[in-house]
Amino acid sequence: MIYPKKASHGAKIGIAAASSLPSKKDISDGMKKLHGMKYEVVDFTKVLKKNITDLQRMEILHRALSDKSVEVIVMARGGYGALRILDKLDYRLIRKSHKIMVGFSDFTAISLAVFKKTKLITFNGPMLKTHFAGSVSKLTRESFRDNIHGFIRKEESVNLRKIGGKMLKRGSSPGFLLGGNLSVLCRLIGTEYLPDFTDAILFVEDVDEHVGRLDNAFAQLKNCGLLNKVGGILAGQFTNCFKGSKAKQLSEFRAMLKDYTDDLNIPVMYDLPFGHENNIMTIPVGLPVRLDSGKGKLTYLETPVE
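User: That's the sequence. What structure does it adopt?
Assistant: Structure tokens below.
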């Protein structure tokens, strides 16, 4: 395992675009919010127009990785395009940089590929457009800070119940956190960029996905053997993937998740805030942890940064 370097007080954050590009206003608003959180910010996307090419995606990320003054790289937004550059990334540069990289959604492809190729821990967390350009919730701000600065340390726990997590299957299991956006994760199956999920604590989320496609995605995880390998599951809120009230949507998702995990003797929790939600926790991808669904605790077995 390779742990990225801990962010210093007032660290310089580089904004990169490995997927789609936000509006200039979103970039400006997000940078102002990060400045307000006492970070320096440099925008590596400022040379771009509305359309972004694969070469530009790769070059911007490599430029941010190569800049010795940048400690943290935050993705501008999700969308699409990250899958297109997996074969073009300089994984030796990524490994050598030891930089913190943060994003979710389409960034799932890069996050998992980086772990497979380098064993460097990345972070499933807030992006410029989705979170920092708007109103940043207390959980989003504090979880981001605690992870990148190493304020949450080895043997300390995240209280998953306190942030809305619910138990589906009771159990306790060690493992390492792997996952991200469910749709993107499924597109890595059968490629050289998918890590080994044996004993992993799988975390998955999605938003605005048709219930049929969502069910197909879980079926794909089951049929390829991935679900049978994992040591535990953390499921997100899956907002607007089902019809009806929030309570009805949650009930229907719970039934789907139960159907796919009934024969698994592992801890399972759901309705957790990460990824495509306004109020999110930051999750260190690749970090050794222990999930205790009965107690609703996720214990870090190592500090995510060094």
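The chain is about 35% helix and 20% strand.
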